[in-house]
Amino acid sequence: MDDIILSLQEITKVYDNGVFANRKVSIDFKKGEIHSVVGENGAGKSTIMKIAFGMEKQSEGQIVYKGKPVQFENSMEAIKLGIGMVHQHFMLIPSFTVAQSIVLGNEPVKNKFFVDYNQATKKATELAKKYNFEIDVKAKIETLSVGAKQKVEILKTLYQDAEVIILDEPTAVLTPQETDALFIELKKFRELGHTVIFISHKLNEVKQISDRITIMKNGESCGTYNACDISIEKMTELIVGRELSTSFEDIKKKLDNTKAVLAVENLEIKTTKKHTLNNINFTVKSGEILGIAGVQGNGQSELIQAIAGMRSFTSGSIHLNDVDISTIPIKQRRQKGLAYIPEDRMQDGIAANASISDNIISTYYDSPEISGKVFMKNKSIRTIADNLISKFSVKTTSAKTKIGSLSGGNIQKVVVAREYQTDPQLLIAEQPTRGIDIGSANFIHNQLIDLRNEGRAILLVSADLTEVMDLSDKLIVMYDGEIVAYFESTNDVTDKDLGLYMLGVKKQSEEEIRRAYRV
Amino acid sequence: MEQYKDLIFSASFFFVIIRVCVPLMFASMSAYTANLSGLPNIAVEGIMLIAAIMGVLGSVWTHSAWLGLLVAIASGILMALILAFSAIKLKTTPIMGGIALNVFASSFTVFLLFVITGSKGTTASLPSKVLPTIHIPIIKDIPILGEIISGHNVLAYICMITAVLVYILVYKTKFGLHMRASGLDENAARSVGINVNRVRFTSLILSGILAAMGGAYLSMGYLSFFTANMTASRGWIGIAAEAMGRGNFITVLLTTLVFGVFDAITNVLSLTNLPSELLQTIPYLAVFFAIIAYSIKEYNKKKRNNA
């Protein structure tokens, strides 16, 4: 037992709103191992790691580090003891150099007050050399690629003498090559006696890199396994807790007389540096769900923002029911039948301090149904809100409750309910079930299928492959701002194959991709 | 036309530029040090005003110009600390705190003036001291250069030295690096253990000292007494110059200099028979157009990056 460096013992975390993020989670991390923590979004992986790093405080349970119980007031205390964390969102200052970023907070000094920049450069270079990182320490952060920025973050933890390095979803933003390079580095850390905690929901990666794997579900640990003893299938079963492909095939109606509702033609977004989107052509027909698969950051967000009217694009056109909506404002797009469930519900989906009913009417507040000439028709607003709350089984005491106080799943239900209420021609669902409980997710999936069966067009974007594969009728894959594959049916492709397209390893021919644009 | 040319291309014109630049430089450095740490100080104007009257009163009480300057600086620090405390500890927005201090300063100084002198105009009746003027040996005997550089108030030279010190502080020292980090990304700074609040408190104190010296210069050097609202928006011009420098200290100083030149032109042209009301708008028009030019540049840059 001596080789256990960090031990989390029966950690429970309850948020103020009564939501359990973790329930009696116990994990032991050994010295010199790569230990993965896997689970779906919202399974409590990030929370438990934030607790281990001192960013959040556990409600119950204790942390034992090198045999001694510790209580972190903030992450500085964790850093001092030798725990480092590479956050999913980098903590880097764009205008600083790599060397400055690495030494920041603990700079080498001369004459007490002055930063010794030569020494800083030297130390950073030595550190990079020791761990085989190829990086120009004099370069500015803003000029670096995402992969290189991550290297800087890792070097920061090493500079602070971290013995335990926590990496939160490090591969989500990386290209396959960068991921391979990262794995080589992580193995090097293991050789040098560091403990690497790897948080991910990509099972093949986890299987490939880890010594041991802890699986989490619904805020609880489902046990720790040796990587060699557990198959990917078994992991999937434990993580999802249900059969992998819950088939929606049976409840999907076959519809005739479909027509293209959304047509995107030659869409291009060009910035000074590169193409964010290039040569995007596809249609979504009535009564179908078109899924967009891809690793995050390959242009999906920009594409959706362009269609929803939240950003401009360089060239190309977007048609909704044969009307050109390329340049019209968001409100008019909505009046023409567009509905949008945004990726970031707290930022773009709701106004957290407003009530549920205010949020429910926020996208059509001026329709004659609820808005008189001067005053709002509060009675009809109330009726609409109450109906939707019961129809979507939103757990709340009243429609007047502040929406921000609800759980993620219930907030998302309100967002979906609002978009549903406008009876859209086209619904854009961007990560519609991210970070919410399985019950709510399942409910939302069924609502999407219902809309589809009523002959609406749905454009679904999700980082969750299972979700895309289960729900979609047709599928496109995006990589590096382009469509790299189109599938007539999700049965035409395996998960593994899809992965190759998503990572840019494979690409269909121009003609095959062209099929995505159907008239 | 000839007379304008003579007025502007003379040694005394350049002397005037330095003379009017001093309070603007102090103001923009004050705004700069605060903003760099991520806590904008829009109370520069108010702090200058308070310091201007406190310097005068201090010199009357202590019979010493230097002790008067110390009183002025102390009052500047106090004002800055109020701002820092309300923004950092009480979490008010620094803009609100700044507005409050500015409004307070413009009325309170007049109140003090009235209570002490019985007049609402100036402290000319008080036996206040003035900080000494320095004639630099050797340089003062060089033709033209001597006329321009020598013979300024001691605070003008302190201002120049301070500019060098601020540059060193920001770009060479550990504290300067922490200031920049706190201002650019608070969370990133915190994540490596920088005490952002402490950095901001210290930066605000510095900002207060700088603004106070600018204020003291006005009533104890530029003029020899305090007059109501004598800062005449110099603090705001400093803030405008700081905003246009976008975190680059040299640019901040150069922008301030441009504003100073326009101010000097106003000063010199007031000797002619052009209407003074019109002339006095020149520096403000300069700020106005500079900000427009700057916004257009920024807008185009943004557009290029986003399109």
Automatic annotation (TrEMBL), chain A:
<keyword id="KW-0762">Sugar transport</keyword>
<protein>
    <submittedName>
        <fullName>Simple sugar transport system ATP-binding protein</fullName>
    </submittedName>
</protein>
<dbReference type="InterPro" id="IPR027417">
    <property type="entry name" value="P-loop_NTPase"/>
</dbReference>
<keyword id="KW-0547">Nucleotide-binding</keyword>
<dbReference type="GO" id="GO:0016887">
    <property type="term" value="F:ATP hydrolysis activity"/>
</dbReference>
<dbReference type="GO" id="GO:0005524">
    <property type="term" value="F:ATP binding"/>
</dbReference>
<dbReference type="InterPro" id="IPR017871">
    <property type="entry name" value="ABC_transporter-like_CS"/>
</dbReference>
<dbReference type="InterPro" id="IPR003593">
    <property type="entry name" value="AAA+_ATPase"/>
</dbReference>
<keyword id="KW-0067">ATP-binding</keyword>
<dbReference type="InterPro" id="IPR003439">
    <property type="entry name" value="ABC_transporter-like_ATP-bd"/>
</dbReference>
<feature type="domain" description="ABC transporter">
    <location>
        <begin position="262"/>
        <end position="505"/>
    </location>
</feature>
<feature type="domain" description="ABC transporter">
    <location>
        <begin position="6"/>
        <end position="243"/>
    </location>
</feature>
<dbReference type="InterPro" id="IPR050107">
    <property type="entry name" value="ABC_carbohydrate_import_ATPase"/>
</dbReference>
<dbReference type="Pfam" id="PF00005">
    <property type="entry name" value="ABC_tran"/>
</dbReference>
<keyword id="KW-0813">Transport</keyword>
UniProtKB/TrEMBL annotation, chain B:
<feature type="transmembrane region" description="Helical">
    <location>
        <begin position="154"/>
        <end position="171"/>
    </location>
</feature>
<feature type="transmembrane region" description="Helical">
    <location>
        <begin position="38"/>
        <end position="58"/>
    </location>
</feature>
<keyword id="KW-0472">Membrane</keyword>
<feature type="transmembrane region" description="Helical">
    <location>
        <begin position="278"/>
        <end position="296"/>
    </location>
</feature>
<keyword id="KW-1133">Transmembrane helix</keyword>
<feature type="transmembrane region" description="Helical">
    <location>
        <begin position="249"/>
        <end position="272"/>
    </location>
</feature>
<feature type="transmembrane region" description="Helical">
    <location>
        <begin position="7"/>
        <end position="26"/>
    </location>
</feature>
<dbReference type="GO" id="GO:0022857">
    <property type="term" value="F:transmembrane transporter activity"/>
</dbReference>
<feature type="transmembrane region" description="Helical">
    <location>
        <begin position="94"/>
        <end position="116"/>
    </location>
</feature>
<keyword id="KW-0813">Transport</keyword>
<dbReference type="InterPro" id="IPR037294">
    <property type="entry name" value="ABC_BtuC-like"/>
</dbReference>
<feature type="transmembrane region" description="Helical">
    <location>
        <begin position="65"/>
        <end position="88"/>
    </location>
</feature>
<protein>
    <submittedName>
        <fullName>Simple sugar transport system permease protein</fullName>
    </submittedName>
</protein>
<keyword id="KW-0812">Transmembrane</keyword>
<keyword id="KW-1003">Cell membrane</keyword>
<dbReference type="InterPro" id="IPR001851">
    <property type="entry name" value="ABC_transp_permease"/>
</dbReference>
<dbReference type="GO" id="GO:0005886">
    <property type="term" value="C:plasma membrane"/>
</dbReference>
<feature type="transmembrane region" description="Helical">
    <location>
        <begin position="204"/>
        <end position="228"/>
    </location>
</feature>
<dbReference type="Pfam" id="PF02653">
    <property type="entry name" value="BPD_transp_2"/>
</dbReference>
<keyword id="KW-0762">Sugar transport</keyword>
